[in-house]
Amino acid sequence: MKAIVFDQPGDESQLYLAEVADPAPAPEAVLLHVAATALNRADLLQREGKYPVPPGANPILGLEVAGTVIEVGSTVTGFEVGDNVCALVNGGGYAQQIAVDHRMLLKLPEKLSFTKAAAIPEVFLTAYQALYWIARIQASETVLIHAGASGVGTAAIQLVRLAGGVPIVTASGHKHAALEELGAARCIDYRAEDFAEAVLDATDGRGADVILDFVGGPYLAQNLQCSAVDARIVSLAALGGARVADFSMAPFLRKRIQLTGTTMRSRTDEYRRRLTADFRRDIWPHFADGSLQAVVDTIYDWEEVAAAHRYMASNANVGKIVMTIGLD
């Protein structure tokens, strides 16, 4: 089969199509013909040599796929050849075929396309984990979502609404209309406004009950400032840097704030299977009834992978950047 690979860390020009070995599915896995994958920030970091591949993970880029089952392992139940599915995977999405544990699969509703389905697993499972498993969001709570126009951000807006919460987001001003249409109650232009003051103003001084953060150290002081009593901050990345200057524990003690860091790719296979099972039960039916939607910004052919990576690096997208996988 063919896959997109790179020989040494660097910019997007390092990526190219090459012949690689076909995957061999284990008894509990299915073999998928991959129709589409989607880009994630981890793809860019791995390509740059800044995100080491976890032990046992597939070194090929791509953390989510949509496609068709073409072979079924001997112990697989509930799936058969011809099923259209999507899945969170631990690498390998930038390829024509991939072997996936059947417990990670989500069967596509009839009207969900491969390009839309490929935009769901990584971001919705990440947002679901952060909001439902870690923060344990409750109805009527206010949630501050940084990077609201990102894939995880657009998923989180919808999941907060589904839980009966109130989503407030930070994003560039020109993205606000699209995020309000998705359900954001308040959009904050982080370039023009102090987001902590804006959150406190929007909540009559209470602050946010839950904060999803991707920026890291540079935002910690403001996150603490606009946290409500008993707030839960979930740190999903440190794109702005991990260091914190002049750090004080006082706000954590005074407001009883919890700070939890998490990444998806470092989780065990068993954890990811349990998360997927809960997501399949609690969230997946809402894609069939239309109350949740994949948010796709742009679709590239995989021969345009360099352009797709450049576009993601520009931070111009609202939602996901999807890549279709060629047959030849």
How would you describe this structure to a colleague?
Strands 3, 4, 5, 6, 7, 14 and 15 form a 7-stranded mixed β-sheet that branches. Strands 10-9-8-11-12-13 form a 6-stranded parallel β-sheet, sandwiched between helices. It has helices at residues 41-47, 114-117, 121-134, 151-162, 176-182, 195-202, 217-225, 250-255, 269-282, 285-288, 305-313, and strands at residues 2-5, 16-19, 29-38, 64-72, 84-88, 97-101, 105-107, 142-145, 166-170, 186-188, 208-213, 227-235, 258-261, 296-301, 320-324. Helix 5 links the parallel strand 9 and strand 10 (186-188). Helix 3 packs across helix 4 (151-162). The protein has 2 domains: 2-120 and 265-324, Medium-chain alcohol dehydrogenases, catalytic domain (Quinone Oxidoreductase, Chain A, domain 1, Alpha-Beta Complex); 123-261, NAD(P)-binding Rossmann-like Domain (Rossmann fold, 3-Layer(aba) Sandwich), CATH 3.40.50. The protein is globular. With 328 residues, it is of the alpha/beta class. The chain starts with a strand and ends with a strand. The model has no long low-confidence stretch (mean pLDDT 97). Helices cover 29% and strands 25% of the residues. The protein is built from 11 helices and 15 strands. It comes from Neolewinella marina. This is NADPH:quinone oxidoreductase. Keywords: NADP, Oxidoreductase. GO terms for molecular function: NADPH binding; oxidoreductase activity, acting on NAD(P)H. Residues 10-323 form the Enoyl reductase (ER) domain.
